[in-house]
TrEMBL record:
The active site is at S155 (nucleophile), D320, H353. The keyword Hydrolase does not apply. Substrate binds at R225, D354. Residues 49-295 form the AB hydrolase-1 domain. This is Homoserine O-succinyltransferase. The record marks R322 as: Important for acyl-CoA specificity. Pfam families: Abhydrolase_1. Its EC number is 2.3.1.46. InterPro entries: AB_hydrolase_1 (IPR000073), AB_hydrolase_fold (IPR029058), HAT_MetX-like (IPR008220). It comes from Craterilacuibacter sinensis.
Length: 380
């Protein structure tokens, strides 16, 4: 397989080690840590064309490109990033980071705790969106980037973009907040807790210290992913793709896989449980639960967003019931009340919450148009 001309091509991960302690929102201090990241495109002489991509719950720093010519798995947003694509690497220098607590190269529960010489496991501290943004700011300092042309993210990534605009208003020109929310609803917190309980009650979890036991809590992580995946899809989308199709064409009158949707979910759960860390999943879902930037401002989201100076693009998808358009409109309403510059689009899509990863034409053109404006500002 050859890498196409619209791809960023062959890429490799980079690692930045930080010896300056990081005080976390939970009160703990990480004495040192590492961040895994990738970059695409070229940073201009003024260092004004950098874009940060923030990942969602199960994402990571491998956002675009492939690791070799034979690699069949491109970065998770490869369809959006590259030469001539909406996030155009001929115009922008794009940075993807694996967040603290991750399991793809950044310091997390499976990393070695220098104090014990063993994996952190359950001793790894809770991390929040604010902690990630502060760590990302330190990485930007390391790369010589004083101000991002844009910070972009979907879902949990959108929360990071929103936090960037409030926490470091002078360091971000535009925030693209896609399929996200200013805080989770009670229903979303409930989904996350059920997923966590599946992991926490797995006999192979061992209180989070399973690394030295020669086992993995695959069953719990598999169930958590299956539950989560259902919420990322829309009813219409699942119906169109799977309907009530039977694998054998006849009822088998048992509890094994009979319907195609069951087969699909079990496949997704199995694949995820082999590639993701259970402790990381727990940390990421709690970071989602804790996110509420208005909390530091007496519960007033308008007051929180008055700190921002960036331009905003907020986008939602009609079939997304996990992060519904109503939640995006809540953000837009607060931005307008705060006197901020904001564009909003509600995009027709059957892909549910996963729509932010897809190539629905109106979505692609929206991103292309908005980022074209960002590029024009840089060139002006």
């Amino acid at each position: 397989m050859s890498v196409t001309s619209s791809s960023v091509g062959i890429v490799s991960a980079q690692y930045a080690a930080f010896d300056t302690p990081l005080a976390l929102a939970c009160g703990a201090v990480l004495p040192a840590y590492q961040l895994a990241f990738e970059t695409y495109g070229t940073l201009n002489a003024a260092k004004s064309n950098a874009i940060l991509i923030c990942h969602a719950l199960s994402g990571h720093h491998h956002v675009a490109g492939r690791y070799s010519e034979s690699d069949k798995s491109a970065g998770w947003w490869d369809n959006m990033i590259g030469p001539g694509k909406p996030i155009d690497t001929e115009r922008f220098f794009v940075v993807g980071v694996n967040n603290l607590g991750g399991c793809h190269g950044s310091t997390g529960p499976s990393s070695i705790n220098p104090a014990s010489g063993q994996p952190w496991g359950a001793d790894f501290p809770m991390v929040t969106v604010a902690d990630w943004v502060i760590a990302q700011a330190r990485l930007a300092d390391r790369l010589g980037i004083e101000r991002w042309a844009a910070v972009i993210g979907g879902s949990l990534g959108g929360m990071q973009a929103l936090d960037w605009s409030i926490r470091f208003p002078e360091r971000i020109a535009h925030a693209l907040v896609i399929a996200s929310a200013p805080k989770l609803s009670a229903q979303n917190i409930a989904f996350n807790d059920v997923a966590r309980q599946a992991i926490l009650t797995d006999p192979e979890f061992h209180g989070g210290n399973f690394y030295g036991q020669g086992v993995l809590p695959r069953r719990g992580l598999r169930l958590a992913r299956m539950l989560g995946h259902i919420t990322y899809l829309s009813d219409d989308g699942m119906g169109e793709k799977f309907g009530r199709m039977l694998r054998s064409g006849e009822y088998q009158f048992g509890f094994d896989v009979e319907f195609e949707i069951e087969s699909y979910l079990r496949y997704q759960g199995d694949k995820f449980s082999d590639s993701f860390d259970a402790n990381t999943y727990l940390l990421m879902t709690k970071a989602l639960d804790y996110f509420d930037p208005a909390r530091e401002y007496g519960g007033d989201l308008v007051k929180a967003l008055q700190r921002a100076s960036a331009g905003f693009l907020v986008a939602s998808f009609t079939s997304d019931w996990r992060f519904s358009p109503e939640r995006s409109r809540e953000t837009v309403k607060a931005l307008v009340a705060a006197g901020r510059r904001v564009s909003y689009a509600e995009i027709e899509s059957a892909h549910g919450h996963d729509a932010f990863l897809m190539l629905d034409p109106p979505y692609v053109e929206l991103m292309r148009a908005y980022l074209g404006r960002v590029a024009a500002e840089i060139s002006a």
